[in-house]
């Protein structure tokens, strides 16, 4: 393309010529596959018309005659090189005749319309075949790939060409895959069976590294036998270990001192946790004694003890579990039951039961045969495996009364347990509070035991055989053997 003519400068298709109507974007079948006539380079068209002077004369429908078809492939066709040579010989005469007959061809032609262009398909096919073959374009280099007369043959040729390319690519991929497989297999065989290459040449085998051994080593090993390897390892230990032990004893180890300090701190925390556990056990027994003494109180029903229960009857609060509005008088009772209902829908289990010496009434530990686990809720709070006992009509509430929230008065609530809405399930909540604190202390003790075990294991391995053989600390100051800094001394 020249880039200077009007057709080359045009950027949009006209949408009205036969080539545009064949395009897919204008609703055509896309069989011709040519660009718009108004966008075809005029300079290139003039160069192509040099070889077809007869086609430059206007053709009208009345003057158009049926053109002879191209000969069949069986007939003898002139070679492209012969035709090209013949055309080049007559190039001068043809060009001069074109200039004499049509002087306006050298000027820039007007844009063509559909009425001015001949629509003879045979003329178009002959023009395309001759123009493309004579210019030697790369996509038309083979005579078998240019059957423009029949679209079916052209499509078939394109398909055959693509199939051939796919077959060539698949064959190349298979060859490359086979080569890579062979290389990998050779590499694996070399490492898995090194004796295959070494057995052929015994002189290439290295000498055994055992002390005083002159025999060749086994393939894939540094020694001729296991005894030579054990002897060399023993000699290394006897030679290196005494010196390392002497160095270890002469210079104090900072990590060892840190470990001792850490052990002392862990022991102090363990002692504090045991003291806390004893205190919680004492509170546990005190609570049981208070509950037993409260049950011995006599029931007393009077208006003064029940004052305040009838106030604010129109006031409503919302349950924290279900969100329903409830009366403040029965709020504690409703929330406790609602919480137990939702809590029983979830299970907390472990594969092993809890065994703690000296501990009573901690976990539920009810075995579930379906999940094969033991329940790990607190025994007093487990809604799944325990229910509140039925309260008799003459049982007293017995909750210890307090002053200023925390100060005990020494008196007990003597209302009937069924009617008391202020102290609902107070025994269960007090027991759960003590049991939860006991569980926390036991977890703290277990964590401290694990820390102590890790520190002792590190201190034991620090002066072991393997550590002394693999690690060595060098003191570069000849005046002292103490490796600690001035701040740690």
Automatic annotation (TrEMBL):
Single GO cellular component term: Set1C/COMPASS complex
Highest taxon of source: Eukaryota
Record keywords: Coiled coil, DNA-binding, Metal-binding, Nucleus, Transcription, Transcription regulation, Zinc, Zinc-finger
Stretch list, region Disordered: 52-118, 158-203
Low complexity composition-biased segments: 72-82
Key word Transmembrane present: no
Single annotated GO MF: DNA binding
Keyword Isomerase recorded: no
Amino acid composition bias (Basic and acidic residues), ranges on this chain: 168-178, 192-201
Protein name listed in UniProt: CXXC-type zinc finger protein 1
Organism the protein comes from: Phyllostomus discolor
